[in-house]
Amino acid sequence: MHLLVVEDDQRLQRVLKRLLEEERHVVEVASDGQTGLELATEAPGIEVVILDVGLPDISGIEVARRIRRRGTDVAILMLTARDTVGDRVSGLDSGADDYLVKPFAFEELSARLRALSRRAVPGPRRPEPRLAAGPIELDEARRRVTVEGRPIDLSPREFSLLECFLRHPGQTLTRDQLIDQAWPFGVAITPNAVDAYVHYLRGKLGPAGKRIETVRGVGYRLGDA
To answer: Which domains does the chain have, with CATH numbers?
Structure first.
């Protein structure tokens, strides 16, 4: 997809751009509301705007309103640290299609983008996405994991870690990459905590957990074991 990220937090903007490009999206960025508004309504091919509410010049709520007033039907996914019912209603009433509260895990953002993409495509409903490696199968829509057909009870963080591995089979993922993709932005996580969660995940997967290989001094990789 062709995405526009409107976010004034430079670190978060860089991380989002890198992770989204790793998923093969084309990503434009803006650090203020006015620039974001111009790109959203004038740049060709933008499909989804990831829009922060707390921008330095114009609020994300007002940017969304102006996008809609200009007749642009681009999808808008709003990001905010505010989590009251009134805040969510204001965001959706301004023209946003979805609303994600910070801190959030990248995997949730990615799933919401896929949902927005499905809404925008007319025609028969596509099958819900599933990821698999050998006997391990992950059903994103139902948040369900099975090994050889047997349900496995994973915590939200273990589920996100497994999803990372299944999306990058054979690729060595550093601990920092796993933190970026499986933990909410802004949450302080140590490399030792990543190791602990990988250990828990392997244990719950049983013999299939041996597929998650340790790459000494680097991180982990989903192999064929």
So the answer is: 2-120 (3.40.50.2300), 130-222 (1.10.10.10)
